Amino acid sequence: MATRSVDIAIIGAGTAGMRAYRAARGHTDSLLLIEDGPYGTTCARVGCMPSKLLIAAADAAESVRKAGTFGIRARLDAVDGAAVLDRVRRERDRFVSFVVDTVEGFPAEHRLSGRARFTGPTTLAVAGDDGTETTVEAGRVVIATGSRPHWPADWTALGDRLLTSDSVFELPDLPDSVVVFGAGVIGLELGHALALLGVRTRLLSLGGDLAGLSDPEVRGPALAALREALPIDIDADIRAVERTGDRVAVRFVENGKEVTETFDYALAATGRRPNVEALDLAAAGLALDDQGLPIHDRLSTRCSEAPVFIAGDADGTRPILHEAADEGFIAGDNAGRWPEVRRRRRKHPMSVVFSEPQIALVGDGFGALCARQDHQPFACGAVSFDDQGRSRVMAVNRGALRVYGAHGTGLFLGAELAAPAGEHLAHLLAWALENRMTVDRMLEMPFYHPVIEEGLRTALRRLHHALEMGPRPVERCLDCGPGA
Ligand SMILES: Cc1cc2nc3c(=O)[nH]c(=O)nc-3n(C[C@H](O)[C@H](O)[C@H](O)COP(=O)(O)OP(=O)(O)OC[C@H]3O[C@@H](n4cnc5c(N)ncnc54)[C@H](O)[C@@H]3O)c2cc1C
User: Fold this and answer.
1) Residue ranges in 338-396 assigned as alpha helix (H)
2) Which atom of ligand 1 lies closest to the CA of 186?
3) CA–CA separation, 231 vs 226, rounded Å?
4) Which residue owns the Cα nearest ligand 1 atom 53?
5) CB 3.0-4.6 Å disulfide test: which of 128, 234, 462, 483 passes with 114?
6) pLDDT at residue 1 in the model
7) Is ligand 1 within 6 A of the CB of residue 51?
8) 47 lines ligand 1 (CB under 6 A)
9) pLDDT at position 482, please?
10) DSSP assigned state of 155
């Protein structure tokens, strides 16, 4: 058995692990990046990139269908499912190859293939595919092991009829029908895209959540708009999910009646679990929470008082790419500068669902603000996009946006939205939040005409008035430009 002694061992060469590696390398050349699978990251292989590629194909199909609205005669003859998935994989593989090239550019002595587990506070055993085991004695360890799809145990009986985001992009052709379980980001994105690509799709979820939207005035219009593309029940009464031959039969209640519908596949988008079980965290002596995750400080990523840091999806919070990269930097930098540890300012939350309309959450949501309104009174400003000028011009006039601000200070606190160009609105709002802008100051910013952002200005004006800081906005502000 080989032994390696290094200053820093990083477990996982995903987004967080690679960022940790680069940050740590600024402090030491004695480090090891340990990866169990192929290089390429979840984002590029099975996450952000293939999902957006599928959505791009769905958008193309939808724009042909909608062409008639503009007097353009075009007919969607067919969706060539094999060609759609072929492009998804081709472009995906291109993105993956860039990542693989980057990791393979790291010095060979900095890389180790195999599955790591703790055997002591900072000692690891790494089992290679070839049956070899390497002992790694590290001064500090960064856990960046990511997450994996999770589904109810009895669905495993569905065998190859059960898809997850790990397998759906590998299908040779688009299926005729899919039932999607889960109304989180992944379920909505994949379900919506498959429906627009002509797959008979039904989305069933439990508990009433829709991509984390807590504001009923946004969730309602969001659901209504999404239901134009596919049937969605976010609080479904699902009685059974069974394999029948080569199909999946789902028994559920619809309009008070029990019905059974069969599909080619079930796509489980029922959450992801951090990859920590195989790490034998008990051997590391780390304090764990009730989910079995290391208790850690978000600002330093440090686990309890140990020289162990955790970053990315593995920590069980905010499973999105830019957070994984930020945490990777903090973890790698702190592992490098140990025993000095720096606590870093974290960004306000921002998440986007690339459906149509796009759904986004920025900063504090309505539910969180309501829960603490006793010590932080807040007000809301709303806009519907049904009649918003530029949205109507482009025939994407669906959805709603609500912005929240603090009474007294006028500080902008957050937003929930289901809106056309939601990804861009979310960025404007997130940047305003990072800059600690007041609603006043946001309204001083330029708004070009005619743009979807004018809808945001309407909501901000209403918020300004609700905060008792400005006049009631006129309902049709024609000097702002028609339809603003
Ligand atoms: C379908 C889908 C769509 C998404 N879309 C978006 C999006 O649009 N925008 C966005 O911001 N985020 C998106 N995400 C989330 C984003 O992809 C993740 O937050 C991010 O990739 C997490 O990076 P990570 O470094 O934590 O994990 P990963 O990239 O998964 O890296 C973890 C690595 O650790 C390795 N590993 C695990 N255990 C061990 C072990 N014991 N020993 C050695 N190696 C190990 C794994 O093999 C893996 O390579 C999406 C995710 C999915 C699934």
Assistant:
1) 366-371, 389-393
2) 1
3) 8
4) 47
5) 128
6) 80
7) yes
8) yes
9) 66
10) G
Cβ–ligand 1 contact at 12 (below 6 Å): yes
User: What is the spatial distance between Cα 171 and Cα 119, in angstroms, rounded to a whole number?
Assistant: 39
Return all residues near 321 (Cβ < 8 A) that are at least 6 apart: 15, 43, 47, 48
Tokens found for residue 56: 């791009």
- The type of residue at 187 is G
Residues 155 and 262: their CA atoms lie apart, in Å, by: 15
Q: Would you say the CB of residue 141 lies under 6 angstroms from ligand 1?
A: no
Atom of ligand 1 nearest to the CA of 149: 53
**Cα 254 to ligand 1 centre (Å):** 36
What was the pLDDT predicted at 470?
A: 86
The answer to whether 48 and 347 are in contact (CB under 8 A) is no
8 A C-beta contact, residue 194 and residue 178: yes
Mean pLDDT of 206-225: 98
Structure confidence at residue 477 (pLDDT): 67
Please identify which residue in the block is written with the tokens 């008082």.
Answer: 305
Over residues 341-354, the pLDDT tens digits come to: 999 999 999 999 99
Which residues, in sequence order, are CB contacts of 10 under 8 Å at separation 6+? Answer: 17, 20, 21, 24, 31, 32, 33, 34, 141, 142, 144, 332, 335
pTM for the model stands at: 0.97
Share of the chain above pLDDT 70, in %: 98
| Antiparallel, parallel or unpaired: β 162-163 and 265-268 | parallel
Tokens of 427: 């960025």
Q: Residues 380-409: pLDDT tens digits?
A: 999 999 999 999 999 999 999 999 999 999
Query: From start to end of 164-306, where are the E strands?
Result: 177-181, 200-204, 232-233, 238-244, 247-254, 257-263, 265-268, 272-274
